[in-house]
Design a protein that fits this description.
elongated, 15 helices, 5-stranded mixed sheet, single chain, two-stranded antiparallel sheet, alpha/beta
């Protein structure tokens, strides 16, 4: 009985959803945009047929074939040169975006267009191999040449050569702020960080955990940003040297129709190699969990490579947002890391070791007051001289 009940419910739910969409489309026909169809390609096919028909009526078949192949060859050659220019730019981003040159090549050259160019080049060679290019007849009619050009453009449109490459799509999305990561980062900031960070120091004082968070430089929210987007409910599962200590006082805010909506943060104990405890306010960047779920849902059409790209863009966008936020300045530290276990084996205490490094860095970084002169700085007893030849930062920018 249950085997027949579940499919029936799914069918009823699907039918009800379709009926609801039809009703909504009728009620808001001018307000709700519909998914784009294939009208553009159908129109391009019509242009191809009309142009080809005119050329056949005006000229011999062999001349039409020669001219079409010549025009397509020139167009594809010019397009290939432009794609090569894109490849040169993408080669600069191989370590951070693609990991290898082949992926950068695929992102710069549309696979459909690349195949179309090879086929066209072969056909062009087969047609003109017994003749010199100079002996090919060129019709002088303006209408004929326009028809030939329109046919070739429509042909390239139909077979996907004019479609933007993945690199072009990525560039457009990044410049126009159309990425999933951009929206998630702004939502995370406006809907969460901007609400809890300004009051973080006051909650630490009110909760009387100064003996635990003894270093005021560590009175920040440490936000873990794993590029794998694997967000665990319990940090103890990720690293045995991380233990939950206690929660800070909650913040209750009336938001989006929810009365006294609760926001809270957790303090964790991180043990070093000598099992000495260190404490900090720690959590994952929760929107990364949404990216991970999207990559596991077939309907989202979100690949693992896209997930990695969006996770990195999320980090970059969040850094830019928080560094320009006066309300959140000094109350956060982002901890990005690549934890893809499929590519390399990580130490079981990798996460705790990395968090401890960030905690130690907060202690040694020196924040210069805006109105302090260099003479006053040099007279301070806290001035530290590094034994290393490498320069150390004077001011932390929280990442």
């Amino acid at each position: 009985m249950p085997k027949t009940t579940m499919p029936l419910k799914c069918i009823q739910s699907t039918v009800a959803m379709k009926v609801q969409m039809v009703v909504l489309s009728q009620m808001f026909a001018d307000d709700i945009p519909l998914p784009r169809g294939n009208a553009a390609k159908c129109s391009a096919i019509f242009v191809m047929l009309a142009s080809f028909s005119y050329m056949l009526i005006s000229t011999e078949v062999n001349i039409v074939a020669q001219q079409i192949m010549l025009q397509l060859f020139i167009s594809l050659l010019a397009g290939g040169v432009l794609k090569l220019c894109e490849l040169l730019e993408e080669c600069r981003h191989i370590p951070s975006r693609y990991k290898n040159g082949w992926k950068a090549f695929n992102a710069s050259f549309n696979l459909k267009g690349y195949s179309c160019g090879i086929v066209t080049s072969v056909l062009f060679y087969c047609i003109v191999q017994d003749r010199k290019i100079d002996n090919i007849h060129f019709p002088s009619s303006l209408a004929w040449n326009v028809s030939n050009y329109c046919f070739c453009c429509a042909f390239l449109k139909v077979f996907g050569f004019l479609d933007p490459t993945p690199a072009e799509i990525s560039e457009i999305c990044e410049e126009s702020k159309f990425n999933v990561a951009h929206g998630l980062a702004w939502s995370y900031y406006i809907g969460y960080l901007k609400l809890i960070l300004p009051d973080l120091e006051e909650r630490i004082k009110r909760h009387n955990v100064r003996n635990v968070l003894d270093c005021k430089e560590n009175w920040k929210l440490y936000i873990l940003i794993p590029f794998s987007c694997k967000v665990y409910g319990k940090l103890e599962k990720m690293d045995s040297k991380i233990e939950f200590y206690q929660n800070l006082p909650e913040i209750c805010i009336d938001r989006a129709g929810i009365k006294a909506r609760s926001y809270k943060n957790s303090i964790y104990t991180i043990y070093d190699q000598n099992n000495r405890p260190h404490h900090c306010v720690l959590e994952y960047a929760t929107p990364l969990g949404s990216l991970f779920e999207m990559s596991n849902d077939a309907s989202a059409a979100f690949s693992k490579e896209k997930r990695l790209e969006q996770a990195k863009l999320f980090y970059v966008t969040l850094v830019n947002i928080l560094n320009n936020s006066q309300e959140c300045a000094g109350y956060f530290r982002l901890i990005p890391y690549d934890d893809d276990l499929e590519e390399r084996q990580m130490d079981s205490h990798f996460l705790s070791t990395m968090i401890l490094k960030h905690l130690a860095q907060e202690r040694i970084e020196y924040s210069v007051p805006e109105q302090t002169t260099w003479n006053e700085i040099l007279s301070e007893d806290q001035l530290m001289i590094s034994k290393s030849d490498d320069p150390l930062p004077l001011k932390s920018i929280n990442h």
